[in-house]
Amino acid sequence: MNTSQSDRGGLIAGIDAGGTSTRATLLTTAAECLGYGKSGSGNPTSAGQELAGRSIVDAVAQALAAGGKAIDELDLIVAAVAGHGASGEEGWLLQALRDAGFSGRLVFESDLLALYFSGTAAPDGYAIVSGTGASVIRSEAGRLVGTVDGLGWLLGDRGSGFWIGHRAALAAVEELDGRGAPTALTPAVLEALEIMPSESLGYGRPALLEALIRQIYRGRPVELARLAPLVFAASGDQVARGILTEAGELLAHSFAAAYQGTGPLVVGGSVLAQPGLLIDVFAARVADLDAAVELLPAADGVLGSAVLALRHAGAEVDAAGHARLAESVAAARAR
Amino acid sequence: MNTSQSDRGGLIAGIDAGGTSTRATLLTTAAECLGYGKSGSGNPTSAGQELAGRSIVDAVAQALAAGGKAIDELDLIVAAVAGHGASGEEGWLLQALRDAGFSGRLVFESDLLALYFSGTAAPDGYAIVSGTGASVIRSEAGRLVGTVDGLGWLLGDRGSGFWIGHRAALAAVEELDGRGAPTALTPAVLEALEIMPSESLGYGRPALLEALIRQIYRGRPVELARLAPLVFAASGDQVARGILTEAGELLAHSFAAAYQGTGPLVVGGSVLAQPGLLIDVFAARVADLDAAVELLPAADGVLGSAVLALRHAGAEVDAAGHARLAESVAAARAR
């Protein structure tokens, strides 16, 4: 027997599941946000499916509690999760939600589409995110129809935090190797990686360089993203400025590869949120491509996952509705 | 009580310990090669110290058996091992040799210096190797005094087998992503990585691309070096030709960074041993730098580790002696 929407409470939830934290909104189909919840990592790839499932259940439970509602009143949960656009592997989350008492429908969405709808209600447009990784998506009629980059640190993520941190490491290695220009990044990288000064020579090259190389290979490559803030901090340095300029250009290049005209560009992620040279170069290159492209910042995918949840529940969200929903979600987050 | 050289048999051994195999020569101080032995991986970093120690002991035992000698007749062992130039961590090998009955002296040398002396007797000169990794060393008075690159896949190894294989993977990813030129490398990479064709779309990009990306991240990055032969095989392809040309230029650039005049250039490793575009570009760029630089091929470090062993035993090896030793070692290897 099918349980129709009205048999439960007519309530829906939007989930923005990220690698650091997971956020849930509890919504009416009239686009009112009744509650908000926040928990730990909801990324099944980095945190594992069990922990990610627990985080999502926890965030939903908090949003329900904030709104004074029970989980059996929920008709629909829309979960924006990285890498779960069309994979079909949804059992890990559905089972965790069923165990918690959820009997409604679960829909997965792209985390990047959620970011997109955090910035705009326009069905056609683009989102770019540069955090640890970097990618661009294109939305058409509210659906994700194209992705550029997002290929991970080994194959792409050009202009990402990893890319910037990797370049900082290379700049330090090249200066110590005698091939690169002196740069303020070298002492900054050595300090950040806790490399101790040493005068001895190892194997025909400076011991400091040997120690730096060993320390870098001791970690996971993606951890080089931790060095990105050093590049932003050293923005008076010519080498650092070169890295930030190239990162801005690479991100604009990825956007250009996705661009087919029409629609705004929602901009997210820690790298693009940083004011200064990188975002200025990026914005200038985007304007060179098409001065009509509007850049709209978005801090996270919370609002957009709420928009996606409403759309999946059959409620359209126009520009005015988007603005009202933004206020309602912000109020729930502030409570 | 010190045991002098003459108390034992006055014999010495040279070891060329590589990641795939370990080779030992048994020598008299008169530069005669009495025996040769070969065993498995002797690289303590990749194979582990215990296995590497066993391989080296095994290769020495075979060389002794071939020469009809016992281990207590050995005065000196010179082991050319990657990454063990000046590290001082020699206990792992010394103990294994002591357990096998060796009571003489153990000296570590650079594997790249051994490659160098496989190609020449000149005390001043250069060696370049490009296999999975890539580096250049400079020898002065028979000692390693400078290294360029050899920084590993994440920080360098430019023009190496990893570098070439990584570029092949990028070329395939970029063609599938719609950003790169069509190339014969794409079907070759997909076949080599056993990616099955599929028509469905995943997450706004081709399922074939998604499958390729997943397969690449499933392996260790350095395994991309396995794709390098595809680039050599596709040498009629423009993208492949571009990769091989750039690799040759990068290797020449590393040599130029080490170059201080004087001396031959010994050339080793599977990438530079491959006839065709890459080595031709490399040789042309080296000639542009200094037409007087003589390129001397070396297949491995066996002869050079024998030269280093003789030098550490106090025997000088001049050009004529080097030629005689080469014949003697070749004869022992052929037995």
From TrEMBL, chains A, B:
<protein>
    <recommendedName>
        <fullName>ATPase BadF/BadG/BcrA/BcrD type domain-containing protein</fullName>
    </recommendedName>
</protein>
<dbReference type="InterPro" id="IPR043129">
    <property type="entry name" value="ATPase_NBD"/>
</dbReference>
<dbReference type="InterPro" id="IPR002731">
    <property type="entry name" value="ATPase_BadF"/>
</dbReference>
<dbReference type="InterPro" id="IPR052519">
    <property type="entry name" value="Euk-type_GlcNAc_Kinase"/>
</dbReference>
<dbReference type="Pfam" id="PF01869">
    <property type="entry name" value="BcrAD_BadFG"/>
</dbReference>
<feature type="domain" description="ATPase BadF/BadG/BcrA/BcrD type">
    <location>
        <begin position="14"/>
        <end position="309"/>
    </location>
</feature>
